[in-house]
Amino acid sequence: MTPIRVLLAEDHETVRHGLRLLIDAQDDMCVIAEAADGGLAVERAQAMRPDVVILDVSMPEMNGLAAARALKHVVPGISIIALTRHDDQSYVHELMAAGASGYVLKQSPSVHLLQAIRAAAAGDRYLDPALTEDRLRRTTLMPAPVKPVITDREQEVLKLVAIGHTNKEIASQLNLSVKTVEVHKANATRKLGFKGRIDFVKYAVLQGWLRES
Fold first, then answer.
1. Residue closest to 39 by CA, chosen among 55, 69, 61, 68
2. Strand partners of residue 8
3. Is 120 found in the same domain as 50?
4. Could you tell me if 116 and 160 lie in one domain?
């Protein structure tokens, strides 16, 4: 049997080393390349054509979400697994909508990552059991969620909200009335299902608008 060829994208070298040891210890998979940021992951995936790419969500230069979108553009048939400490539904939604085949938490047992790799290589989707009550769904093909469409203006408003600007400051920067800013903010909030400002910040981190510490 031909081993599943895996590319690791993780900016922490120690974590990458541990993941490589885990994966290379399996009879049915092997690591063929590593990358310390999303941009390099895209370059190496395009050159080496791995079966599965494991993407850390929080990486410098190009984060996991941006990398997932780029990978699906340059290597459409590739399988992607998001590996992250974030268990928030907004992260799950964004990564799955971007084309990820799996979503695994770093704090979960390592067996879940191995199961995700095998599921992704087989064309299935995998959601970490900690994120769902129905554990039978973890290796079942699930349709990717439909990504809500927000307008360019709504996106501009969201970005400024996430950075911390008030409605009045946003209105001044974008040459809009405060009422119009409130309408754009309300529309984006409804479309994306946000509950509060923390959701705006999480969304901004995923979009690469903010640098996560």
1. 61
2. 34, 54
3. yes
4. no
pLDDT at 138: 39
Q: Which helix (H) or strand (E) holds 80?
A: strand 79-84
Query: What domain range is 9 assigned to?
Result: 4-139
- Which of 82, 112, 139 is the endpoint of a domain? 139
CA-nearest of 188, 183, 190, 179 to 207 is 188
Query: Which residues contact residue 90 at a Cβ distance below 8 angstroms, ignoring those fewer than 6 apart?
Result: 192, 199, 202, 203, 206
* 19 within a domain of the structure (yes/no): yes
Residue recorded with tokens 């970005």: 159
Write the CATH number for 47. 3.40.50.2300
Give the total residue count for the chain.
Answer: 213
Higher pLDDT: 202 or 106? It is 106
Tokens of 210: 């903010």
Residues 44-62 pLDDT 10s: 999 999 999 999 988 877 8
